[in-house]
Amino acid sequence: MKPIEILNQRNLKRTSCREGIIELVMNAGEALSENEIRERLQGNYDRTTFYRSFKTLEEHGILHKIVVDNLLVKYALDKTVTNLDDHAHFYCQECQTVRCLENIPVTRFQLPEGYQDVATEVLIKGTCATCKKQQGS
Amino acid sequence: MKPIEILNQRNLKRTSCREGIIELVMNAGEALSENEIRERLQGNYDRTTFYRSFKTLEEHGILHKIVVDNLLVKYALDKTVTNLDDHAHFYCQECQTVRCLENIPVTRFQLPEGYQDVATEVLIKGTCATCKKQQGS
DNA sequence: AATTCATTTGCAACAATGTTGCAAATATAG
DNA sequence: CTATATTTGCAACATTGTTGCAAATGAATT
Fold first, then answer.
1. Which domains does chain A have, with CATH numbers?
2. What is the rounded distance in angstroms from the CA atom of residue A89 to the CA atom of residue A25?
3. Which of residues 18 to 77 on B have a Cβ less than 7 angstroms from any strand C atom?
4. Nucleotides on strand C with an atom closer than 7 A to protein CB?
5. Could you read off the pLDDT of A84-110 as tens digits, one per residue?
6. Per-residue pLDDT of chain A (137 residues; tens, 9 = 90+)
7. B93 burial class (0-12, 13-18, 19+ CB within 10 angstroms)?
8. Chain B residue closest in CA terms to A114
9. Of A30, A122, A135, B84, whose CB is crowded by the most CB atoms within 10 A?
10. Which residues of B in 116-135 have their CB below 7 Å from strand C's atoms?
11. pTM of the predicted model, to two decimals?
12. What are the angstrom distances between the C-alpha of B83 and each of B25, B67, B86, B121?
């Protein structure tokens, strides 16, 4: 599905900023940070605009946010767009990329009495295949 | 084990700030943020001192860091102090507390070919038992 | 095409979190 | 008590994110 269709489907105005973000994230193959998106996106948008766009796109189930430690925030397409289940994420400590591990579903954990879960985040940190090879180990 | 012993054991100088942090985190029953620690700790320490203390204590396996979304950072005792295995964490969206779920170990996931894991973080978000009751649902 | 109106954008200002360099203070060993 | 390496506090700065408000823009209507 095209960015424009995704926006129309949710009654969101199609601005060049939103379109561009969706387009980029769609074709990236990895989650992208605000900075990475700004670098690759033509048309210099204000930081405020980006933050508000991310928020809107997230609230409408177009993007999902992955946070590594603090301060490193990345975005990927949401499951309502990709039709994938909740999955784990992999953060490569070498190249700082975040990838969705679509084959590793997030299982529901047995919580203590009285606890109710709403969402579960699984973040695996390590070295990705590409960086592993380059280490020539 | 007492804070002083923990510090001595690792050849770290026992300063009142480090001692205080360990003492607090030890008796808190939940993970504490920089702000929470500062509020409860006598002796006004500089923010810089806290950040450097956390870093030192983390590097020496005394504390471990739990990050919720971005910007919310909490600390709890590390497994090298508690002798517990890696475990999941629960973040209550109502009272903003973070608790270690010692009974929910973090399992190793089967990664794609070539990927190597170093650490895995499992954060479950929802409502804790206390807040659940108060909602009177 | 032009008009209208709600939404979105850019700007400025601000807040929170975290880092770095450096001089003064402090912990520990001798 | 002294010497020395470590730690602390301060100032300055960087980054990330938010808010209010006026200007610009998207999309529906004429």
1. 3-134 (1.10.10.10)
2. 15
3. 33-35, 47-48, 51-52, 55, 71, 73
4. 7-13, 16-21, 26-28
5. 888 898 998 888 888 889 899 998 999
6. 889 998 998 899 999 999 999 999 888 888 888 998 999 988 889 999 999 999 999 899 888 888 887 777 777 777 766 678 888 989 988 888 888 898 999 989 999 999 999 989 999 999 999 998 887 65
7. middle
8. B129
9. A122
10. none
11. 0.81
12. 16, 21, 10, 18
Nearest CA to CA, how far is A13 from chain B (Å)?
A: 28
User: Which residue in B124, B133, B135, B137 has the most chain A C-beta atoms within 10 A of its own C-beta, making it the best mutation to test that interface?
Assistant: B124
- Nearest CA to CA, how far is A8 from chain B (Å)? 29
Indicate if the pLDDT at residue B72 is higher than 90: no
Question: Tokens at residue B88, please?
Answer: 């999941």
